[in-house]
Amino acid sequence: MSYDFDFSFLAEKWPAFVAGAWLTVQLTVVSIALGFAVGTICALCRVYGGAVLRRLVGGYVELIRNTPLLVQIFIVYFGLSSLGLKLSAEVSAVIALVVNMGAYTTEIMRAGLQSIQRTQLEAADCLGLTRLQAIIHVVLLPAMERVYPALSSQAVLLMLASSITSQISAEELTATANLVQSDTYRSFEVYIVVAVVYLALSALYRLAFWLLALVLFERKRRLGTAL
Amino acid sequence: MPEETDAVVRIAGVIKEFGPLRVLDGISFDVARGQTVAIVGRSGSGKSTLLRCIAGLETIQGGTIAVCGHAVGTPGSAARAQLRRDVGMVFQSYNLFPHLTVERNITLALTLVKKQSKEEARKRAADVLGLVGLTDKTASYPEQLSGGQQQRVAIARSLALQPQVMLFDEVTSALDPELTAEVLGVMEDLARRGMTMITVTHEMGFARRVADLVVFMHKGKVWEIGPTEELFAAPRTPEFRQFVRSEL
Amino acid sequence: MTQLSVNHFLYLVTAAQWTVLLSLIAFVGGTVVGLPIALMRVSRSRLARALATVYIQIVQGTPLLIVLFLSYFGLGILGYKLIPLVAAGLALTVYAAAFLGEIWRGCIEAVPRTQWEASDCLGLNRFQQYTYVVLPQALRVAIPPTVGFMVQIVKNTSLASVIGFVELARAGQIVNNSTFEPFTIFCAVAAIYFALCYPLSLASRHLERKAHAGRN
């Protein structure tokens, strides 16, 4: 049997793919940044907070990590709107992605925070730093440096998982592909193109995280050694 | 008594318990301004715990500790902030911040706590690094320094805040002999300049040479206390006699 | 529009059986393909290493959803009119193999070099070294993360719903279409997923702790 590959739809449709990819980037950059913030705060609660706070955060993490993102997205988009909270597809997508990224970041940052010895906090205490100052200036950055590979992998995974938001028709890359393939009937080729775009985005995100590390971790940049 | 009014640190009947274990059992002594006190004793005698109590790192279950007239361990951030202004602490494991340069390790508290400007803080850092002989290491990171150099930076970091009293918790225990000497040299220098110091140490030579007052702790109690010369010349208890012999 | 009833929930539970079946297919498929991938990653042959690396990079850099579409439409144009279960099983196999391959590579590399050297000195050949010395040790390290990854597999079977395979997530959508009570229904769906995944998460953590305790 033979099959003639036909990518001619690209000539006409490429702007749609660019627009879709751009929305994917916007959605995921916002979600990664907010998700990281949520996860870091939750990790701080988990490590330094009281018993109730630790429980609460633990429950959030388990709930999210043991249910599919697809269902989480449905609950936010269809579920909340049926309860009277109407959100656009894009806003619903960001909320679900942030909540999801937050849960994974909590676990990763918790490990990072726990790898910082208590004596660092004691030293900061003896220098007169408040608990908050100690956490911000002494603990957070080294903790982040220790788990940075895991954090950046998680961010790439989230970018890829954002394709699931096509299921509530957020007009990102995968949704664009779905539209184009129903227009052109070139399903296989369309998804090959999109797969290549996602691969390129993955590489781009990894590069961006590598560059970000150079900015964030001055010591590592100058000495090249692991903390 | 005139010495008492001059006391920088007053320890009275201090009791510290970890669960059912009583680690400090009624410790009392005073430290006068400018005095160097060496706390000696076997491991497990409670000497490091006592130091941590003075630094406010541990809560105490009984008795009182006062530094410069302020009670340690009273709740409230004002009292704690005061304690932090008065007391500097140097740890066995240096506890430098690995992600910050030597200079930033020193200026961090100056800018955050003392609200000094960047230039002021950097000038102060240069001053104290000069005191410990590390002027050329400003831009280095802790991992690039030897253990002895790291400990000297840690001392400089505490000194920069101009504390009334410095606490040293076995600061040379993790160091090789030759590195130990350079750190002890810095401490001797400080003592000569009139800094009030309490040091927990295994270095008997240092204690004899530099300390004005020696406290021998045993089983959570002050077993013997007195001026250095007297105490070493004529140990009163068999425990201290044995300890001195074993440490020589 | 019909009233939400117990029957709807029974329907969800029935559909969850397909989720379990699909998970098992993905896990078995992922193991069959993933183990050779792991062995290729630590192989002495540069070509084998490169091929396995490229495979892992591509699969880990592409959304599973896209892999699913490629599997569904790709097999379609090859002339096979596939039932969604096979297309989904294939896509999940491809996906699981890449991740399991990478997890297991780490486990094989965690076996100390001295074990290779010692078995080499005893005259074992490469195959014997693997089967009698290295893999049994790697297996102990591999169990906790492998069980942990099964959680990812179970959750990701939900994506099979987009190609029309009626598993738990799709069943939820179907029930929702007739009753229109999305909040209740999708929370129920989430609860069933949680009931499937949480024990696996707990087991993984428990095994991890046990492995740590054994090492110290």
TrEMBL record, chain A:
Compartments, as annotated in UniProt: Cell inner membrane; Cell membrane
Keywords: Cell membrane, Membrane, Transmembrane, Transmembrane helix, Transport
TM stretches of this protein: 20-48, 190-217
Recorded topology in the membrane: Multi-pass membrane protein
One Pfam family it belongs to: BPD_transp_1
GO biological process, one term: amino acid transport
PROSITE patterns noted in UniProt: ABC_TM1 (PS50928)
GO cellular component annotations of the record: ATP-binding cassette (ABC) transporter complex
Keyword Membrane attributed: yes
Domain ABC transmembrane type-1, first and last residues per copy: 21-209
Major subcellular location class: membrane
SUPFAM superfamilies: MetI-like
PANTHER family associated with the record: ABC TRANSPORTER PERMEASE PROTEIN, MEMBRANE COMPONENT OF AMINO ACID ABC TRANSPORTER
Protein name: Amino acid ABC transporter membrane protein 1, PAAT family (TC 3.A.1.3.-)
Originating species: Enhydrobacter aerosaccus
UniProtKB/TrEMBL annotation, chain B:
PROSITE patterns: ABC_TRANSPORTER_1 (PS00211), ABC_TRANSPORTER_2 (PS50893)
Coiled-coil ranges from the UniProt annotation: none
Membrane topology label: Peripheral membrane protein
Subcellular location: Cell membrane
Gene Ontology cellular component list: plasma membrane
Record domain ABC transporter: where: 9-244
InterPro entries: AAA+_ATPase, ABC_ATPase_HisP-typ, ABC_transporter-like_ATP-bd, ABC_transporter-like_CS, MetN_ABC_transporter-like, P-loop_NTPase
Swiss-Prot/TrEMBL keywords: Amino-acid transport, ATP-binding, Cell membrane, Membrane, Nucleotide-binding, Transport
SUPFAM superfamilies linked to this entry: P-loop containing nucleoside triphosphate hydrolases (SSF52540)
Taxonomic superkingdom: Bacteria
Record GO terms (molecular function): ABC-type amino acid transporter activity; ATP binding; ATP hydrolysis activity
Family: Belongs to the ABC transporter superfamily.
PANTHER family linked to this entry: AMINO ACID IMPORT ATP-BINDING PROTEIN, GLUTAMATE_ASPARTATE IMPORT ATP-BINDING PROTEIN GLTL
Protein name: Polar amino acid transport system ATP-binding protein
Organism per entry: Enhydrobacter aerosaccus
UniProtKB/TrEMBL annotation, chain C:
Record flagged with keyword Transmembrane helix: yes
Gene3D superfamilies: MetI-like (1.10.3720.10)
Topology of this chain in the membrane: Multi-pass membrane protein
Pfam family name, one: BPD_transp_1
GO MF entry, a single one: transmembrane transporter activity
Compartmental location: Cell inner membrane; Cell membrane
Bilayer-spanning residue ranges: 20-42, 54-77, 83-104, 183-201
Keyword line: Cell membrane, Membrane, Transmembrane, Transmembrane helix, Transport
Chief localization: membrane
CDD domains (UniProt xref): TM_PBP2
Source species: Enhydrobacter aerosaccus
UniProt-listed NCBIfam families: HEQRo_perm_3TM
Domain ABC transmembrane type-1: 16-204
GO biological process: amino acid transport
Protein name: Polar amino acid transport system permease protein
Family stated for the protein in its record: Belongs to the binding-protein-dependent transport system permease family. HisMQ subfamily.
GO cellular component: ATP-binding cassette (ABC) transporter complex
Keyword Cell membrane (UniProt): yes
Taxonomic path: Bacteria, Pseudomonadati, Pseudomonadota, Alphaproteobacteria, Hyphomicrobiales
